[in-house]
Amino acid sequence: MPPEIDDNVCTGCGKCVDLCAEDVFFGSGRGEVPMVTYPDVCFHCYCCVLDCPEEGAIHLRTPLTMMVPYK
Ligand code: SF4
Ligand code: SF4
Predict the structure, then answer these.
(1) What is the pLDDT of residue 66?
(2) How many whole angstroms separate alpha carbon 23 and alpha carbon 56?
(3) Ligand 1 site, residue 2, Cβ cutoff 6 A
(4) How far is the C-alpha of 18 from the C-alpha of 21, rounded, in Å?
(5) Fewer CB near the last or first residue (10 Å), C or N of the chain?
């Protein structure tokens, strides 16, 4: 599942925009809630979730196929 940003929790700090290696988010970082512009390239590293200062602002769920361990 691609990341989703909760408009009611996000403060628009822009941290997720800066840190995502895949440029999934687009935003100014000046108080505007970022847009999720390239959701399909998210590889679920969880950096944005872990570094977001507002708990619960980014919702992300790892697809089931990525949870299956490889031998
Ligand atoms: S890091 Fe969190 S609070 Fe900051 S813009 Fe991204 S979702 Fe919003
Ligand atoms: S989980 Fe990783 S790749 Fe996906 S949007 Fe967040 S920082 Fe980018």
Answers:
(1) 80
(2) 20
(3) no
(4) 8
(5) C
For the Cβ of 13 lying below 6 angstroms from any atom of ligand 1, the answer is: yes
Domain assignment present for 15:
yes
Q: In this structure, what DSSP letter does residue 1 have?
A: -
Given a contact cutoff of 8 angstroms between Cβ atoms, the answer to whether 60 and 44 are in contact is yes
Whose CA is closest to atom 3 on ligand 1?
A: 10
Query: Does any domain span residue 16?
Result: yes
pLDDT tens-digit profile of 25-55? 999 999 999 999 999 999 999 999 999 999 9
CA 61/CA 53 separation, integer angstroms: 19
| Structural domain contains residue 71 | no
C-alpha of 57 from chain center = 9
Query: Which residue lies with its CA nearest to atom 2 of ligand 1?
Result: 52
Q: Would you say 67 and 55 are in contact if contact means Cβ atoms under 8 Å apart?
A: no
